[in-house]
Design brief:
The structure is a homodimer. By secondary structure, chain A is mainly alpha-helical. Chain A has four helices and two strands, in the order H-E-E-H-H-H. The first copy, chain A, has one domain. In chain A, strands 1-2 form a two-stranded antiparallel ribbon.
Chain lengths: 164, 164
């Protein structure tokens, strides 16, 4: 019975991670706002920033991976390799979220030392939607860290909870 | 004999990771250049960018952790917990390197969509030293990923190399 609940627990975490990564992807891709600035009409979209494009690619990869792993048979030896792939996905989410956050922070506050003005004053809705995508990306990351700790706990017992 | 070589291998990886994280920290902290721009004298330093400050803090944490773990007794049960801490350090290095890279990329190329001009034209030596710090940070990250795979391999055998 315990094994069954553990297995279902793992699948639920993976399903939630799939949902969060997909949401982050969709919210980021659909973030766009038109604004006029000194009589010039501008449109802000996620493709304007390399870090946001990286965020989209990373969450797309994680979404596909999370979906495929749901169909891996229980007895498959590949589950041993899934631990390493979970690690890779966790690093990909960590990296893309951090890069997008760093650039979003500059977009929100600007950087006086570098002479970069903030942009969120002109395109507030765009910035709010980017924030939403980053939150969804953070949820996906937390779920993947839980998945990793869950896999590590099953094999390494790092918190010494199992009676030896 | 195999166990001894494995143990020494682990310690050498940790020592190298300690050296790389410390180098990244020192190179980033000492990066500074004075430049004059439209008769204004400016000094570029790592504290100008939040992402670079984050990079310094992360590599400082990893350096201290890597140094302390070197003194952990072989038989200690804490080694089981070190796998989780190695994961945390790997994520910290991934995150801080990605954030610093995202901002450095904007510093090097600017971003026309956001109206941000590149800065490396005015402070080329500063940018070169930042690049050096990011390379050292990347080496520390690669070493930590190897350490993680090494720990996972010892307990999970994800590449199914051990004869069952």
């Amino acid at each position: 019975m315990v094994k069954l609940t553990k297995r279902i627990g793992g699948l639920v975490l993976r399903l939630a991670a799939f949902g969060a990564a997909l949401a982050a992807l969709i919210v980021m891709i659909t973030s766009r706002e038109r604004a006029s600035f000194l009589a010039i009409s501008l449109e802000a979209k996620y493709t304007d920033m390399a870090a946001f494009k990286y965020f989209v690619i990373a969450n797309a990869v994680v979404s596909v991976y999370s979906f495929l792993v749901l169909f891996l048979p229980k007895e498959s030896l590949l589950w041993k390799f899934v631990v390493v792939l979970d690690l890779v996905m966790t690093m990909l989410l960590t990296s893309s979220l951090s890069a997008a956050l760093a650039v979003a922070q500059v977009g929100k506050k600007g950087n006086a030392n570098a002479g970069w003005l903030p942009i969120c004053g002109q395109v507030p809705k765009f910035c709010d939607q980017i924030t939403g995508a980053l939150i969804a990306g953070f949820v996906a990351l937390v779920l993947y860290v839980l998945l990793l700790l869950y896999s590590l706990h099953a094999v390494v017992d790092p918190f010494l909870l199992q009676k030896s």
